[in-house]
Amino acid sequence: MSSFAGRMKEYPTISLDRFDRENLHAQAYFLSHCHKDHMKGLKGPLLKRKLQFSRTVRLYCSFVTKELLLNNPKYAFWEEYTVPLELESPTQISLVDEASGEKQEIVVTLLPAGHCPGSVMFLFEGCHGNVLYTGDFRLAVGDASRMEQLHSGSRVKDIQSVYLDSTFYDPRFYQIPSREVCLRGIAELIGNWISQSRYHVVWLNCKAAYGYEYLFTNLGEEFSTQVHVNSLNMFKKMPEILSYVTTDRRCQIHACRHPKDEEFLQGNRLPCGSTAADGTPLRIISIKPSTMWFGERTKKTNVVIKTGASSYRACFSFHSSYSEVSFLSKPFFLLLVTLEELTERVAPPVAGEEPQVASDMQPVGLNFMDCTESNGEEEDDNEEEEGQGDTVKNKGPKWEDFFTPEVLSDSQNSQSQSCCSVRSTSPSRATGSQTPELFSEEEETPDNNKGFSLSLSASNHSSQNLDSHLDDTLILHQDQNQTSDGVTLQSEQEQLSASQTSSDFDIPSTPESKAPQTADLLHLYRKLASREEVVLREEDECSSEDL
DNA sequence: GCGATCAGCT
DNA sequence: CACAGCTGATCGC
């Protein structure tokens, strides 16, 4: 369940994915996707009442999310207060303090999150800096690098904080087979089964949540059929899904549900009650989509596993794996703090006081490059993200692509949409520097507004069985990384790139590479921090389109 | 009766 | 192996 409290330190007057408690006072609401654990308080009577008295408070989400939301009668009262936004199109929103009339402008951009239908990430740009709230997401390596809105020209935007779905942000979940691979495995199993006779049917044991639809559409397409589901209502305005689902039970692929579906299966019935046509018993297999992951060094395993005489488990994940998360977050990487602290810091920090670092902070992601099996052939079949793999290894670090002082497109680009010209509280930014203060100046207090923070928040889905460092929010503090423990120092050598844009920060791991030595990293970081040139690829310098 | 919370289950 | 979300018990209002 998501444990994100709903607010970001930079913009505490807006609430995301939480609608209870303090969030009742928000000036604008954002819903990343339509999963219940991100809708806490959304049907609360207090909130409903507040809306009726407000002229300015609105809920912003994608069109699809609005549709799914309003499909549930309990949320129907949101109809007139919900503003759907197009993907990837920056929209200015006024945050109004209705008591004082005070107004603040903020620009929000919705980015596809790949978690479930309608799911988005929110990029906010305003006078308190740029922040990215990912919500839950499943993005493959390379996806984020293709998102124009995260870039200014050829550079990654200066993003102050990333509020990140950390569900699988643990090395244990190093790799989760890609959607394509999982789909292929499932389709093969289904194909082999349903081709045997019309009485051979498949039951997809899916949970009551949005997110399996792409499975239905792809299988529907592959087998020229429709998938039986309980209801079509929510999809009535989504033809691209609607055409692949049906309430007609006479099909071979089912994803219908019933509270007692396991019992039904025992009795050789499908959850919809179907049992036999013209007296011939059905031959039913069940496939349960569930997350399967592979460690850094784990050999590949089949994405479909037989768990019983007629039951299977198939790999399926709504969330990005550790490596996918790492690649996404890398450019923004710096600080980890607990969510509790983050919340505290919504209030002014105590001057001169060191923010408290989570005691269980881990050097996340340190062993990346070391990964992979040794026989070089599995890269390709394992869908390793479009074979960028081999283009990377001999290239120099591209860390500076994101963080060199020269890079500065931001002041021209994103600023133009912001309400304030330049941050006054952040001198280095005021001058246009995007250098993350890897070695923060001593005199600076760990101010909220300064430096980067990677807030692993939004969810502690996996906290139950994992070590505490995974519990919801972790922020990696910039002041930690000069220590020799390697904290955060993992990132830069993966910034290798030979790809088309300098901002292609999503690079698959390189089989031959070794984990960097701490000493080397320190050396490199010191150079970077002192703005020495480390490796520079001229051709990728800012292009004129920035302007 | 309703909401919030939690254990249990899947 | 998780997740998302239900059901049902309990408690407070």
TrEMBL record:
Q: Which UniProt keywords apply?
A: DNA damage, DNA recombination, DNA repair, Endonuclease, Exonuclease, Hydrolase, Nuclease, Nucleus
Q: Which terms does the UniProt entry file under GO BP?
A: DNA recombination; double-strand break repair via nonhomologous end joining; interstrand cross-link repair; telomere maintenance
| Cellular location(s) | Nucleus
Q: Does the keyword DNA damage apply?
A: yes
Query: Would you tell me the protein name for this molecule?
Result: Protein artemis
Instruction: State a single Gene Ontology molecular function.
Output: 5'-3' DNA exonuclease activity
Q: Which residues form the DNA repair metallo-beta-lactamase domain?
A: 240-325
UniProt lists compositionally biased (Acidic residues) regions at: 375-388
